User: Which sequence fits this backbone?
């Protein structure tokens, strides 16, 4: 049958064909648009809906002191989050009210929680780094109220510092993201943080995880841990005594560093005021807190607080510079001996000042020291003497050793933010600059540079690189890296080193450093003072005073530098810093198992062990005590000794008094008096009056002008009669040298 199309039918068929072709073209274009133009975008959306990518955080490595004590560690905490799209209106109040109570939220925080519960998302974090007990309470709350698909928890970590402020300027701290922000935490961040892992799972259309056959995981690699050179007991002694002196004299700051002079290992380092590593944004120094409280302008107060916080973060030992003052004379002495421009027989007559071109440079002792030997010049810290020595050295030799001791370069210590020194270059020196530099002015150095140079004088003449991390261990305790002592260069000869050490010992025995004396150990030292001209904003001159020490002087194991910044009294390093050094030296020697060697005079004043006289007759007890050069005091009318104080085997000073009890009953107690400010004889007299024993510490008792400045038991405390109170004495002669 033949088809008969009229014109109208043909037109309709053409239109239909066009529509079909258009629709096919439209679909083809859409397929092209989706697959080619928008392909990557839609593929990513599909992947995000079908895949779950969960990051597994690596555990940050710990930090230990040299004895394995934990100084910093990470512990598991939890983040709490909501799935707002699964929270029904009927459950919303239950979720918000329950979590607000558990998390102890205030009204404002609770309102924020309510807003988060209404977000158009499956994930809204409401609390971070929650402790495990809170997480467990939330888990039980979810179970009890059938809220498991509305509230979730995910593992996190939090950094803990068990000792708070201890070594804070060395350790530093981390941020909320567990990243190191300061100190070793920052410097060794890549070592400590490890590598995060991942778990990638596939979901079906209902967002349920498919079987583990479709799961891919990459294990987290925990960070390595640091084992430091810091000794906990030495660090504690340094911090404690720096803090006590800083607070007593309302100083701007107090700084100290102790090094093993034979290896370069840093045994202790402190920069006060410091902070609690767990709360680094909280102010700690009462002087700063009180000053800020007095500010009435809000903007000014905020700025002052911010500055104070940054100051307590600052590690002045490595990041600050200062003019070392007369401590630097030890280096001039070494240079002069090495270049043979002076010997121990060299003399100079000090008249109290010396003229250098148009300037009159004064000695701290204005009447003048008279004729001195080279050693006496160091003992007296005589400026004119060392000006003449510096001039004999000449600019070239002076600067040659200035470089050799490492004062023109950073030490390279493994701590962040090490500052460079500020100094005159060789071609900038004239006779005036050289003379000023010869007694420690003009050039500004970091404390770590000074102490590192001091180690070279102490150890026989070799400059070493300082370091804080002894070795690095992995999560299984295996050592992955060990720090070896690094010799930078030889600076002076063994003979010069030996001579300067003996000169420094004389400074402690006979000169301005008497308060650095420690019985049984031969301590060498040098005092120093520098005027802070640039920072003097009023009529009062401000000083930074210091004391450098080595011990034992005949074979040094440690070198240290103690600094007090802007004390509120015009006292030098010999009065403020040397007593701190003495305490630190004593702790160092004990920690390094170095036995004391007492001379004849020291031996006569040593404490003895209290003999056991319990059960003996009074006459026999008296005879036993007499044999030990001890006195006695009898309480009661009995015939035998029932109790004694001090107890047997405890130490008691020679000529001390043992209290003997011959009847049962309460021990006789006394209130400890105040020994501070007393002379030795006055302290002994007061102790006898109260029925106590005093053990003398801290100073060569043959020295004059000695007074007590510290006692082991505070005044007002109640103790048993016969108790031994250790009283520390220091020389009150103080020079701003």
Assistant:
């Amino acid at each position: 049958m033949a088809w008969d199309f009229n014109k109208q039918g043909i037109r309709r068929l053409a239109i239909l064909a066009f529509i079909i072709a258009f629709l096919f073209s439209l679909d083809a274009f859409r397929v092209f648009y989706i697959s080619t133009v928008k392909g990557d975008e839609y593929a990513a959306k599909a992947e995000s809906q079908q895949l779950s990518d969960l990051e597994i955080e690596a555990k940050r490595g710990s930090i230990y002191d040299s004895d394995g004590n934990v100084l910093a560690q990470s512990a598991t905490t939890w983040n709490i989050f909501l799935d707002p799209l699964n929270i029904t209106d009927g459950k919303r109040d239950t979720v918000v009210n329950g979590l607000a109570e558990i998390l102890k939220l205030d009204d404002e925080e609770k309102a924020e929680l309510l807003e988060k519960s209404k977000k158009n998302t499956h994930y809204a974090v409401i609390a971070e780094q929650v402790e495990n007990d809170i997480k467990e309470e939330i888990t039980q709350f979810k179970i009890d109220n059938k809220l498991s698909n509305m509230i979730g928890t995910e593992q996190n970590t939090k950094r803990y510092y068990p000792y708070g402020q201890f070594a804070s300027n060395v350790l530093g701290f981390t941020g909320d993201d567990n990243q190191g922000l300061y100190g070793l935490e920052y410097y060794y961040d890549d070592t400590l943080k490890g590598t995060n892992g991942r778990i990638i799972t596939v979901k079906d259309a209902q967002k349920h995880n498919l079987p583990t056959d479709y799961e891919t995981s990459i294990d987290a690699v925990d960070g390595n841990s640091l084992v430091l050179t810091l000794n906990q007991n030495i660090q504690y002694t340094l911090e404690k005594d720096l803090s006590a002196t800083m607070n007593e004299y309302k100083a701007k700051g107090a700084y100290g560093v102790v090094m093993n002079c034979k290896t370069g290992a840093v045994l202790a380092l402190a920069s006060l005021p410091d902070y609690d590593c767990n709360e680094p944004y909280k102010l700690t120094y009462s002087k700063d807190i009180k000053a800020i409280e007095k500010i009435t302008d809000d903007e000014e107060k905020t700025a002052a607080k911010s500055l104070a916080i940054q100051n307590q973060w600052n590690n002045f030992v490595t990041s600050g510079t200062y003019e070392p003052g007369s401590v630097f004379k030890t280096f001039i002495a070494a240079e002069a001996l090495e270049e043979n421009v002076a010997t121990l027989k060299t003399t100079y007559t000090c008249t109290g000042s010396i003229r250098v071109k148009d300037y009159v440079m004064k000695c701290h002792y204005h009447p003048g020291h008279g004729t001195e030997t080279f050693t006496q010049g160091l003992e007296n810290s005589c400026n004119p003497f060392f000006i003449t020595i510096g001039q004999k050295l000449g600019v070239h030799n002076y600067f040659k050793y200035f470089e050799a001791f490492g004062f023109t370069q950073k030490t390279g210590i493994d701590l962040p933010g090490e500052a460079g020194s500020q100094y005159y270059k060789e071609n900038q020196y004239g006779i005036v600059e050289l003379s000023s530099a010869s007694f420690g002015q003009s050039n500004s150095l970091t404390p770590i540079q000074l102490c590192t140079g001091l180690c070279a004088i102490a150890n026989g003449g070799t400059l070493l690189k300082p370091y804080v991390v002894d070795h690095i261990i992995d999560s299984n305790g295996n050592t992955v890296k060990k720090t070896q002592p690094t010799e930078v260069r030889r600076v002076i000869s063994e003979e010069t080193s030996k001579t300067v050490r003996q000169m420094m010992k004389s400074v402690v025995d006979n000169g301005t450093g008497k308060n650095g004396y420690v019985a049984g150990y031969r301590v060498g030292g040098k005092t120093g003072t520098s005027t802070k001209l640039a920072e003097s904003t009023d009529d009062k001159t401000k000083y930074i005073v210091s004391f450098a020490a080595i011990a034992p002087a005949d074979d040094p194991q440690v070198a240290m530098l103690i600094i007090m910044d802007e004390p509120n009294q015009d006292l030098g390093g010999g009065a403020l810093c040397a007593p701190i050094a003495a305490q630190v030296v004593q702790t160092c020697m004990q920690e390094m198992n170095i036995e004391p060697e007492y001379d004849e005079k020291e031996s006569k004043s040593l404490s003895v062990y209290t003999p056991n006289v319990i059960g003996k007759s009074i006459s026999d007890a008296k005879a036993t005590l007499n044999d030990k050069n001890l006195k006695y005091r009898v309480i009661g009318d009995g015939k035998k000794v029932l109790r004694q104080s001090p107890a047997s085997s405890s130490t008691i000073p020679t000529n001390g008094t043992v209290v003997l009890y011959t009847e049962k009953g309460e021990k006789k107690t006394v209130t400890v008096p105040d020994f501070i400010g007393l002379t030795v004889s006055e302290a002994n007299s007061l102790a006898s009056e109260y029925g106590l024993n005093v053990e003398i510490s801290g100073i060569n008792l043959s020295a004059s002008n000695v007074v007590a400045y510290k006692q082991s038991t505070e005044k007002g405390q109640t103790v048993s009669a016969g108790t031994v109170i250790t009283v520390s004495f220091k020389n009150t002669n103080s020079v701003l040298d």
In short: Residues 54-224 form a domain with the Penicillin-binding protein 2a (Domain 2) fold (CATH 3.90.1310.10). The chain has a mean pLDDT of 89. The radius of gyration is 37 Å. The chain is about 35% helix and 20% strand.
